[in-house]
Fold:
Amino acid sequence: MSTELKEKPKIQPKVERPKLHKVILLNDDYTPRHFVVRVLQAVFRIGEETASRIMYVAHTRGACVVSVYPRDIAESKATEATDLAKGAGHPLQFTTEPEE
Ligand code: TYC
Structure:
């Protein structure tokens, strides 16, 4: 009988990390810029300078990624921000999509 030590095959459990989802701010022609900045600050807990930069990118390019989160958090933040704007009579929209 061989006493040779055989290396055990390493079993790697295949656990896929759930994809993060992007929250995307969409531009529109009506929502005042300062309101967009305020919503970003309130819902995404970011400073005025960062919020202004994100708002300006969406304003000039049509859309801007605000942040990434696990799917349920991304969706609830997008809904919260869109509803906040709707409640104030603005058409501001946020969407989500999975990261590549
Ligand atoms: N385009 C808007 C305006 O000129 C401002 C705005 C910026 C609206 C970014 C939405 O995601 C947005 N008043």
Observations:
- The beta strands are 20-26, 63-70, 93-98.
